[in-house]
């Protein structure tokens, strides 16, 4: 049975208790809390110790895992090294196994090659701290390293067991990288996924229910299953991209993933 989660962009105005209830109501196993985005859940570095304990107990009582802390850390910038420890501590106290992190957009005058080196060096500076806390740093295939060949290079240069990949399955493919190239570049490092379908529009892509976009989602799903992937299939969408409200959206994401799982097993 696959593990399904959602990022709190699905319900940014929900309180912590409402987010947990939403996950339970739709038979999700996990929640990916987005920090630093004004969401109402309160999973932020500003949360005091007592609040963190209450949050941890509420999730345990509900049988829900906080599966990822989706941060804004951009390791191409030195500031991320200073910002990371507080987020690592927050994740550790809530038993969250990984932080979603970025390389970040290219700073003015910095080449992609140099940005990759800089991001790898910076993420390596906090990797020991993360490992000691029982937390990993999951670099997303996004922004300047949307191509898996580039994101994978950062992980290899960092060369640390606490540094891995969050495969956003949309970005490499929509930027022209073949699925075969993506898989070869990052498959050994994938610990978390943002898994969705999408259509390419001028500007930002539009997330869609599975089967209504242009991604080879079944092939992507099958590849993960073929290596016995045990991480989460997390949904990240905005507004009404997946439905008119949070309940409709979560149901669509869940049902689409379960259909992909059924199709995979029917071929075995």
Q: Write the H/E string, N to C.
A: EHEHEHEHEHEHHEEEHEH
- Number of alpha- plus pi-helical segments: 9
Low-confidence stretches: none
- Helicity level: 40-55%
Can you count the beta strands?
Answer: 10
* Outline: globular
Walk me through what this model shows.
By secondary structure, the protein is of the alpha/beta class. Helix content is 43%, strand content 19%. The chain has 9 helices and 10 strands. It has helices spanning 16-25, 49-62, 79-93, 112-132, 148-158, 170-174, 179-186, 217-226, 246-266; strands at 3-7, 30-34, 65-74, 98-102, 136-140, 163-168, 190-194, 197-199, 206-208, 232-235. The protein has an 8-stranded parallel β-barrel, surrounded by 5 helices. A two-stranded antiparallel ribbon has the order 8-9. Helix 1 links the parallel strand 1 and strand 2. The longest helix has 21 residues, at 112-132.
Quick structural summary:
With 268 residues, this protein is an alpha/beta fold. It is built from 9 helices and 10 strands.
List its salient traits:
two-stranded antiparallel sheet, globular, 9 helices, 268 residues, alpha/beta
Break the fold down into its secondary structure elements and pairings.
Layout: E1 3-7, H1 16-25, E2 30-34, H2 49-62, E3 65-74, H3 79-93, E4 98-102, H4 112-132, E5 136-140, H5 148-158, E6 163-168, H6 170-174, H7 179-186, E7 190-194, E8 197-199, E9 206-208, H8 217-226, E10 232-235, H9 246-266
Parallel strand pairs: 1-2, 1-10, 2-3, 3-4, 4-5, 5-6, 6-7, 7-10
Antiparallel strand pairs: 8-9
């Amino acid at each position: 049975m696959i593990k399904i989660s959602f990022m709190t962009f699905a319900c940014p105005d929900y309180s912590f208790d409402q987010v947990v209830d939403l996950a339970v109501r739709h038979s999700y196993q996990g929640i990916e809390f987005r920090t630093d985005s004004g969401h109402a859940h309160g999973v932020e570095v500003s949360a005091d110790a007592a609040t963190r304990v209450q949050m941890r107990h509420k999730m345990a009582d509900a049988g829900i895992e906080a599966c990822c802390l989706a941060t804004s850390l951009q390791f191409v910038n030195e500031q991320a090294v200073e910002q990371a420890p507080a987020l690592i501590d927050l994740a550790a106290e809530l038993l969250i196994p990984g932080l979603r992190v970025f390389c970040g957009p290219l700073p003015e005058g910095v080449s992609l090659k140099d940005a990759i080196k800089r991001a790898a060096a910076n993420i390596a500076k906090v990797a020991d701290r993360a490992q000691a806390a029982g937390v990993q740093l999951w670099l997303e295939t996004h922004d300047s390293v949307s191509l898996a060949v580039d994101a994978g290079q950062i992980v290899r240069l960092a060369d640390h067991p606490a540094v891995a990949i969050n495969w956003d399955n949309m970005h490499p493919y929509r930027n022209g990288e073949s699925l075969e190239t993506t898989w070869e570049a990052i498959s050994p490092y994938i610990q978390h996924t943002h898994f969705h379908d999408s259509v390419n529009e001028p500007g930002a892509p539009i997330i869609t229910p599975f089967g209504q976009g242009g991604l080879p989602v079944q092939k992507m799903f099958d590849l993960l299953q073929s290596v016995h992937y045990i991480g989460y299939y997390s949904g990240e969408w905005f507004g009404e991209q997946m439905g008119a409200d949070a309940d409709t959206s979560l149901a669509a994401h869940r049902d689409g993933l379960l259909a992909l799982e059924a199709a995979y097993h029917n071929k075995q």
